[in-house]
Specification:
Helix content: 10-25%
Structural class: alpha+beta
Number of strands: 30
Distance between the termini: 36 Å
Largest sheet: 7 strands, mixed
Radius of gyration: 37 Å
């Protein structure tokens, strides 16, 4: 590769991960070699090892000179290379360039003729994901040959245009690949057809420099901006660090570190919910000697906190003394959010350290050298559980997740109306105006606000409705008779209602009920529970009960139920409620449909529509279940 710094052997990704924080710059230089020319590599190496702020500024300026997506792509490939646990530095390099392959084909060696070959395959879908643009070059294959039978680190790239000297014993005037495959066929290591396929594959296989060009790493590269000067020399990034002892733990003191990061530096899914990987890597030194290194990875999800700062933590157990903590915090695409090296004086603690709430494994787990944890930020969602909201009350539910959340306060137009201390956080709240803004405030055990959600509810009129509920027996001075429960709901402006009860055409009872009496007879879903007396039918044959409710403005509704006799084949029902969903030809929901755009047919016959109105704020529960057991291995990270 013209102009590139020389390639050199390096420790495996697993060995590098165990090095102290100060070595991350050596690691970055090694991993980014395929992107650096000799001049830039020399500039980076010339920065003193102790000047970590200058090194971070150089890395930031380097990525600013390249297309924005390349930094995240490089970081994803770097992590994928570490997870593959390869021993060959060259193969690790290829993964950092092209990402993990779709499949790896292993061809074992055959005597001294054919050494071990590996063919790595990428399909167009993977390459499109890598480059960020449609890949129209078909499948891509990179070939490796193991030049030393006993050393898995000795893989070299193999193409039809270049072959390692250690490949096989060949004549100087012969094509090495052609002689290699011909000898393998003579020794019956591979078939002639397979040899032809390998020759065709090697003809198209790129070498390392060609792979960098093919994957677009050279496109859109500009000059590096001037490095920032001045400012703090002991801290880099927008994050802040707070250290505090929490108590004693088996002759040591637990020290909790809290990193606060601005919300705007983290990634969101929809502009509202955070979804970010935050990696904390640290070294603890005493008297210049490395005591321990640790790594804590937080997968942060949830609603951004109201104060605009996301807080993640780590725990260490240290004996009394003075320490230096080297800390580096970065997000999923490799951008460093905090780099600092504070001094820490640890004193002996007299009180035992409390176990952090909601953390599995407690302090024994949290103080390990490497942990990965899901950090669900406190959040609350407020929703109405009643679809057809009643005129004078509404049922609200606050769904909470994350922690710590000890209770929920319900506010109506900014004023506290109810304090809920335990789940489920459900309450019925009165509505006193046409429009209310309700809020659910989740708080911790100290009463501090952790999350908030708001919901605007518009009170809308309830139509006049009446229907029979269930039969029930009763006894009164007139003798035994049956009564039918009647559910009745009134519009907001209705002051009185006239209720008539019939047995067939015979009027049994007529009452004029004031609104207060109707509301006092509470029933389900905002209705009122009344009843109609039904005498024994004085005749044989079909008997039915009918109830009619009418208002002063002439509006009327009725319901009918069969009591005895043979049921008729047809019963006329004045109104029936039908729920419909409008979708387009692709099955996607259509909003804003008007009543005159809907027609209804029953048995092929058109039916008139009395009223069409949208049903809003239907409760919806969605659950995402992931199997994260060890049997899935690395596949969980790809979800």
């Amino acid at each position: 590769m013209a102009g590139a710094a020389p390639w050199s052997a390096a420790a495996s990704a697993q060995d590098v991960a165990q090095r102290p924080v100060s070595s991350v710059y050596e690691q970055w230089l090694q991993e980014a070699r395929f992107l650096l020319d000799a001049e830039r590599a020399a500039r980076f190496e010339a920065i003193p090892a102790s000047a970590f702020v200058a090194k971070e500024r150089f890395i930031d300026a380097f990525w600013e000179s390249r297309p924005p997506a390349q930094r995240g792509r490089f970081e994803r490939n770097r992590r994928a290379a570490a997870e593959m646990r390869l021993r060959s530095e060259l193969q690790l390099e290829v993964v950092r360039i092209a990402g993990p392959p779709r499949s790896i084909e292993d061809l074992p060696s055959c005597d001294s003729i054919l050494r071990r070959l590996q063919l790595w395959h990428w399909d167009p879908a993977l390459l499109t994901l890598q480059t960020g643009s449609p890949w129209d070059g078909g499948d891509l294959t990179v070939a490796f040959v193991q030049t030393s039978s006993f050393d898995p680190r000795s893989f070299e790239v193999l193409t039809a245009r270049s072959a390692p000297e250690q490949l096989t014993f060949v004549r100087e005037d012969a094509d090495p690949i052609e002689q290699l495959l011909a000898g393998a066929v003579r020794q019956e290591c591979i078939s002639r057809q397979r040899a032809d396929e390998l020759a065709s594959t090697l003809e198209r296989a790129p070498d390392r420099a060609e792979l960098v060009e093919l994957l677009g790493w050279r496109r859109g590269v500009g000059p590096m901006p001037a490095l920032a000067t001045g400012g703090a020399t002991d801290r880099f990034g927008a994050g802040t660090l707070r250290l505090e002892p929490t108590g004693s733990y088996f002759r040591t003191t637990i020290v909790r570190g809290e990193v606060a990061l601005p919300v705007e530096t983290l990634a969101t899914l929809d502009g509202r919910s955070l979804f970010e990987r935050i990696e904390i890597v640290g070294d603890v030194r005493r008297d210049g000697r490395l005591i321990e290194g640790f790594e804590v990875v937080h997968h942060v999800v949830g609603t951004p906190p109201r104060d605009g700062r996301v807080r993640v933590d780590f725990y260490r157990k240290l004996r009394p003394g003075e320490y230096t903590l080297a800390l580096r915090v970065r997000r999923g695409d490799g951008v460093v959010l905090l780099r600092t090296e504070p001094r820490l004086q640890v004193a002996a603690a007299s009180e035992p350290a409390p176990e952090p709430p909601g953390r599995r494994g407690g302090l024994a787990q949290l103080t390990r050298d490497r942990i990965v944890q899901l950090t669900a930020l406190p959040q609350v969602r407020l929703r109405s559980r009643v679809v057809d909201r009643v005129a004078d009350r509404v049922e609200l539910e606050a769904a909470v997740s994350g922690g710590p959340i000890a209770g929920v306060d319900l506010l109506r137009d900014g004023e506290l109306v109810q304090r809920l201390e335990r789940a489920p956080f459900v309450a019925t709240v009165a509505t006193t105006a046409d429009t209310h803004r309700f809020a659910a405030v989740a708080r911790d055990d100290q009463g501090r606000e952790q999350a908030r959600d708001e919901l605007v509810i518009q009170r809308r009129d309830r139509p006049l409705r009446v229907r029979f509920a269930a039969l029930r027996s009763a006894r009164d001075p007139g003798g035994e008779h049956r009564r039918l429960a009647v559910e009745l709901s009134l519009p907001l402006e209705a002051a009185t209602v006239r209720l008539r009860c019939y047995l067939n055409a015979l009027l049994l009872e007529e009452r004029v009920l004031p609104r207060a009496e109707v509301e006092a007879a509470g029933g389900p879903a905002g209705s009122s529970q009344l009843s109609c007396p039904i005498a024994r039918p004085p005749f044989a044959g079909l008997a039915f009960a009918r109830v009619e409710a009418s208002l002063d403005d002439g509006a009327a509704r009725e319901d009918l139920v069969i009591l005895s006799g043979q049921r008729p084949e047809e019963v006329e029902i004045l109104l029936e409620e039908v729920f419909v969903t409008a979708v387009d030809s692709a099955g996607a929901p259509v909003v804003g449909v008007q009543g005159d755009e809907i027609s209804l047919q029953v048995g092929g016959e058109p039916r008139p529509l009395e009223r069409v109105e949208p049903v809003e704020d239907l409760p919806l529960d969605v659950a995402l279940l992931l199997d994260s057991s060890s049997s899935l291995g690395r596949r969980v990270r790809a979800v």
